[in-house]
């Protein structure tokens, strides 16, 4: 939404310990680098070392300081003649607001204390209001426009500065600031309306449905919450072993809610109105500016070609499985296919003892040292620096360049903690006026079990892969060396942002990497090769169906954000798209789109995950498959892809890495070839 213009808000005093313990006695490397004891935020206490944030009231001081600084910077940029300095001041303005907003964005959902969460939420609101004000500040807009209108000046800018100036301008224009006053007011109103509708829709996606008790067979009541005369259905229960439980949950949870339906229709039509008002033919055309795909036509070509290739191989597999499960009931098979992203429950007890958290962290350390010359050192946080005592702080140190940044690891389950694994930018990297580099700071949030008296924290294979995935985002943030924080690390187009994290999944599934660290926590035995291979192959069994499902979601998202007015209802579009792109019949009186929460944060961009996977697959095959520890390939990866954040056009980064410009067909082939069974595994299993 437009109010995110200047803040790139994205859907985290130091005495050193000789050795840092992860709960359960696992060691991270001994920290002998005493020169890195300087505090990153120049204060000794308070969250993330920010002195003011030792108490919730500190958020008010931090936000007031940021707003004061913002006013001074606006005054300064408006009084200067246009030049490279204009972009620097814009970025400093963005940085001063983001440093409070990004930190508050994290604290408002993750801090265990309510007072901190509420103070952070208030800070987000006040910075948001300031950003809205800046979005409609004509004088501020003109200072940037004068620069971009002067061809001679633009030609004299280096490519990164020019790109950042254009990105700021692009964000400005979604607020309609370049339009006449009446249209500008309409754009502002639409932005506010879209924000409200987005929040309402998002809340509705999780809202439970209820049904009268007597309408459900009594023996399945115990699978749900029962209150009085009603049964409450709060999800799809896709993991339930009983067909009937899954069928009931599917039909009831997805039963259409009239209010939610109206909210979605209004959200889509308001997005379309805003896009048209600011000069785009559809919302999708606006959303895809600056991405790898560039436009909706390329996205649809990618999805259709991928769907054709997948359905060839999927039809036989699905038919066979559906018959085996229950030939009478395709619905129960359909419900069976809504599992969480990583579901390898059958393997869990066998594999977990080999994946203690300490072993996995050691594995990451070995990989980063060999590939990039980087080591993760554990540091003792100062009192008040972290929000929970089990949060670990890692210094990311390069063998010759020194300290690159900090990662705070909030890895363990606790009450009221959100259940998603994610990466938060707390402070972006940028080159400061005094020539020093502002070091990036991020948080990785996971939901791992605590260690017990008898064992350290043990990860399932899915958790291990997620840890590697999130660490891919963190390294993108740590290794970005952009001049501007507006394009730091993961602040890049959505279809490129997942490339570094998905690439890490390829490392996590490679035996040569896994064998470096996977040791049984009791016996020290290495994980046998055939167990790693079998795990990888078992994932491929469901991977084609899962990919087809992603194609269906992504296509639905494109149609909803394409030409308006929509030619029919959102539910009719769902039915048609599902039958064409997923091959299983639509279940009458259901409306899955009303639970599709990604329509808010990833409107017109849901395809991004598939596109990023295709790029990651190509990078893996071209550069790392032969030798996952190849230092020259690691350095090239850093130089061509990670270092630029969002400061270079994504396709140029991909080209620099692959030494060729990939086509849509190349992307499709990369994804499909990942599904091929590995002949070597079958040979090993038959021995």
UniProtKB/TrEMBL annotation:
The keyword DNA-binding does not apply. The keyword ATP-binding does not apply. GO terms for biological process: peptide metabolic process; protein processing involved in protein targeting to mitochondrion. CDD domains: M3A_MIP. PANTHER family: MITOCHONDRIAL INTERMEDIATE PEPTIDASE (PTHR11804:SF79), PROTEASE M3 THIMET OLIGOPEPTIDASE-RELATED (PTHR11804). Monomer. Cleaves proteins, imported into the mitochondrion, to their mature size. This is Mitochondrial intermediate peptidase.
